[in-house]
Amino acid sequence: MTEITCRVLKEGDEAALEAFVLPRISSSMFLLGNMRMSGLADTGRPYTGTYAAAFDGDEIVGAVAQFWNGNLIVQSPFEYLNQLWQTAISAINRPLKGIIGPAAQVEHVLHFLDVDAELLQTDEVENLYSLDLADLVVPPRLANGRLQGRRAELDDIDLLIQWRVDYNIETLNETDSPALRKQVEQSVERVVDEKRIWVLLDEGNPVSITAFNTAAKEAVQVGGVYTPPAYRSKGYARAAVAASLLDARDEGVQTGILFTGIENYPAQKAYTALGFDHIGDYRILLLKRPFDPG
């Protein structure tokens, strides 16, 4: 039996990481998409991170990464998980800001960290969904042109910033502050430049937004879906997501992935109406301030 070894990944390990995550793509999109966008070198710039993997010979059998924003992404059997997250975090010495991944794996890491409950900003197990984009059910009002979805443009940025701030406060339990607005401004400018955020229009008026929080040629992961309260219960979020997935399908992407709260029944109804299937769970745990696990 080959001895399992764990180490930080470096340039040249990309193919091995892809071979591991592609069969697990529905719960590995951050690992795949960020590596494809920015490589394996951790420069501290957006999307870069420190990756650690467990190897059985030349084959990766578990992987984690701590990214530039402090979030630890996990995708590993339990027997390697502790060594992997400790390897990644100690290699870069970056405080922890969150743990994200399959729910049981996040719980496993959390069990070994002395995180006070007061430090939790949000901690939610969510339903994980997948859709073959060939089976996307397009809402009638989007199909007939009464609603229009398009990629966001520079002129949309002020509106997007305000709606993203509102989203973070409502969904991620953030507190409105100059720091949050600066963070959101930088994020919005980046995703507009990357053409990964969409606006839904009703008679020319913006009514909903959606984005891909990570993307690869095989799949896109929907995130940041937000409809202001005055426009809710009108099917706008469903149409916004469909518009973004139609564009992705036109560009050759085959799969859409997303996750939403286990008690967010309106969102679940909207996504299943588009054709999404519930395939598992995912957990998002974010901290109010960076935590030193050492």
**Biggest sheet statistics:** 12 strands, mixed
Approximate strand percentage? 25-35%
Q: List unreliable stretches of 5+ residues.
A: none
- The count of β-strands is 12
Secondary-structure element pattern, one letter each: EHHEEEHEHEHEHHEEEHEHE
Write down the Rg: 19 Å
CATH class value of the largest domain: Alpha Beta
Classify the helix fraction into a percent range.
Answer: 25-40%
CATH architecture of the largest domain: 3-Layer(aba) Sandwich
**What spatial form do the alpha-carbon principal axes imply?**
globular
From the N-terminal CA to the C-terminal CA, the straight-line distance is 33 Å
CATH level 3 topology of the largest domain: Aminopeptidase
Please give a structural write-up.
With 294 residues, the protein is α+β, with helices and mostly antiparallel strands. The chain folds into two domains: 4-113, Gcn5-related N-acetyltransferase (GNAT) (Aminopeptidase, 3-Layer(aba) Sandwich); 130-280, Gcn5-related N-acetyltransferase (GNAT) (Aminopeptidase, 3-Layer(aba) Sandwich). It contains nine helices and twelve strands. It has helices spanning 14-21, 29-38, 78-92, 103-111, 140-143, 157-172, 178-193, 236-250, 265-274, and strands at 4-8, 49-56, 59-67, 71-75, 96-101, 120-132, 147-151, 197-202, 205-215, 219-226, 255-261, 277-291. The protein has a twelve-stranded mixed sheet, sandwiched between helices. A hairpin with a 2-residue loop joins strand 2 and strand 3 (59-67). Helix 1 (14-21) runs antiparallel to helix 2 and helix 6 crosses helix 7. The protein is globular. The mean pLDDT is 96.
